[in-house]
Amino acid sequence: MTPRCVRCVDASATVGDMPTRLSAREMSLLALDTQHTPAHTSAVDIFAAPDDFDIDRLVAVISDRLAYVPRYRMRLLPVPGSLAAPVWVEDEDFDLSYHVRRSALPRGGTPEQLREFVGRVCARRLDRSRPLWEVYLVEGLAENRFAVVTKTHQLLVDGMDGVDLGQVLLDDSPDPGELISDEPWEPAPEPRPLDLVVDAVRQSITDHDALWDAARRGVTGLLGTAVAVGEAVGGLGGALGEFAGAALRGGLRPRGDTPLAGAPSEQRRVAQVSMPLEDLRGLRMNERYTVNDVVLALIAGALRDWLATRGEPPPTGGLLAMVPMSVIDEDGEPTSLGSHVAPHLIQLPVDESNALMRLHQVSFGTRAHTDTGRAVSARTISDIAGFAPSTLHALGVRVATTMSRRPHDLIITNAPGPQHPLYAGGAPMVASYPVLPLPPGQLLAIGVTSYNGHVFFGLTGDRDSMNDLDVLAQCLTDARLELLETAARAEATRQPTRAAAKRAETRKKATPRKRTAPRKTTASTARKTTNSAPRGSTTPPTAPESEHADVSTSPADDGAEGGVDA
User: Fold this and answer.
1) Which of 62, 93, 139, 141 is 20 to 30 A from 326 in CA distance terms?
2) pLDDT score for 375
3) How far is CA 504 from CA 383, 528, 537, in A?
């Protein structure tokens, strides 16, 4: 069994003399956590059920792994008088049975029934008086399977002191090995209210930025209350609503002229699509594109077709997607994963009718990230110990919510995972679908996870505005077939480039001739000669020639170019 630790969160981590306080950015996240926009990231992991797997086994596994994620036993404690931001304290009344819950579908449960359950569960906010996470064991799925649905607040996963529970829950073998510790956990005493007040006053005196942070915190609190009240009575209107939302998001506003913009309701709808990873690798056109390019091109094609089913023209200039990327320097949220996550905006060419040209245009957009020299390869990310996608999705959403200043239409996170089976308590995981939260003003979010030879798309939409989310899921499948057919036609009709023809002629002269009768050169043999040229020597007729290549270090790299991508 490989180490479960993620480079990692120290199992011996403890709260210092004074508890850790929320930062101004984290306070903004907390203020945006409303009934209409709950700020947690979720996942639906599906397992093949051994005969002896039950809720007790899952509770035992989670109890064992909590030592790696100490913040999962902590709750937020407000400072009296709101003199400072809340602090993290160990929950003296921590009750694991409250956080790990058992549910069941009617025997032989279908994927549609599971998605309905996930939509209802993920729409509910987490209880702020307790540690901010929940896990559901959903039994009764067809083919003797069960699902584990996780909900983790964005505040728990900062990439430094905390990673997602899903990253440390899974093992590389069916044998989970020895427990990391058989010693009972004892919570540290909570600080007294007087101590919290004294520390807040001391900090305001010694820290020159404390007064400014306190002012921003007060404004954030007022705006958060205004947003919550406004949602309860039907939304904030006019300049006040725009100002409140923009201030809480650090200046970020959703673009209001697209079909993906609107005020989310309190309910969610989810859809799921899976594809063989090898099929997407086959669309890289001799590795001129990355798997991440293919994923984004498929999403662009699906959105185009989905808009057509609604009778809506595609927006001129396309849709602007926030696609957080992993980078190797300190520009972005620092993580314990050996990289950082930074915001990156990509134009999705939904107004382009040719599938291959969409792929080329997306590749041109991602190249801006690759050309910085800071991109992290998919192989590097997928080699992270544990199941990193759960952490990377959470970090991607966190970065997109707090760090971007430009309006965008939707969030897309793409996290490459290990390409071998993983197990929870001996049960093999067969699928993992991310479920992203909806930011204020947006009606759709898409997460993508690659794992064990498959790519899993998780679509989250507002239940009222996106009642045809299953149509978008079908359009995603159709987009893959469209790109495959378009690429095949281009391959069948393309002509050799001048450089390829020259190389073919050089090889022809260097090869000893056999004494056979001369034969005519046909179009078929010309294509065969062209196909024998080195990679990157030809281009489809619909796209200009490009030197852009996958940053992955080998064909085994699975997921995204450079990062979380995200």
Assistant:
1) 62
2) 53
3) 39, 10, 11
Q: What are 407-433's pLDDT values in tens digits?
A: 899 999 999 899 999 999 999 999 999
Residue 238 Ramachandran class (φ > 0 left, ψ -120 to 50 alpha, else beta): left
Could you tell me the maximum CA-CA distance found in the chain, to the nearest angstrom?
A: 100
Cα torsion 126, 132, 137, 142: sign: positive
3-state secondary structure 227-295: HHHHHHCCCCCHHHHHHHHHHHCCCCCCCCCCCCECCCCCCEEEEEEEEEHHHHHCCCCCCCCCHHHHH
- Phi-psi sector, 277: left (phi>0), alpha (psi -120 to 50), beta: alpha
- Number of Cβ atoms within 10 Å of the Cβ of 240: 12
Q: Please report where in the chains the tokens 């051994």 appear, as a residue.
A: 50
For residues 1 and 168, what is the distance between their CA atoms, to the nearest angstrom? Answer: 12
User: Which residues partner with 319 through β-bridges?
Assistant: 348
For the chain, what is the domain count?
2
Contact 419, 439 (CB under 8 A): no
Q: Are strands 40-48 and 74-77 parallel, antiparallel or unpaired?
A: unpaired
Taking each continuous run of H as one helix and of E as one strand, the counts in the chain are: 16, 17
Q: What does pLDDT average to over the chain?
A: 78
Based on the fold, state whether residues 242 and 283 are members of the same structural domain: no
Q: How many CB atoms lie within 10 A of CB 424?
A: 23
Q: Are 393 and 428 in contact (CB under 8 A)?
A: no
Tens digit of pLDDT for each residue in 76-92? 999 888 788 899 999 99
Q: Is 546 exposed, middle or buried (0-12, 13-18, 19+ CB in 10 A)?
A: middle
Q: What is the dihedral of CA 330, 333, 336, 340, to 10 degrees?
A: -50
Please give the C-alpha separations between residue 528 and each of 281, 486, 542, in angstroms, as whole numbers.
Answer: 22, 20, 20
Tell me the pLDDT band of 383, cut-offs 50, 70 and 90. low
Query: Would 525 be classed as within a structural domain?
Result: no
Across 155-159, 277-281, 549-553, least confident range: 549-553
Give the pLDDT of residue 301. Answer: 97
What per-residue confidence (pLDDT) applies to 377? 55
369: pLDDT confidence band, cut at 50, 70 and 90?
low
Q: Is 185 domain-assigned?
A: yes
Report the CATH number at residue 315: 3.30.559.30
What percentage of the chain carries pLDDT values higher than 90? 45
The pTM is what? 0.79
- State the Cα angle at 119 between 43 and 445, rounded to 5°: 65
277 plus 223 within the same structural domain: no
- Residues 219 and 342 occupy one common structural domain: no
Alpha helices in 459-541 (DSSP H): 469-493, 498-510, 523-531
Q: Taking CA 519 as the corner, what is the angle to CA 516 and CA 523, rounded to the nearest 5 degrees? A: 145
The Cα 179–Cα 185 span in angstroms is: 14
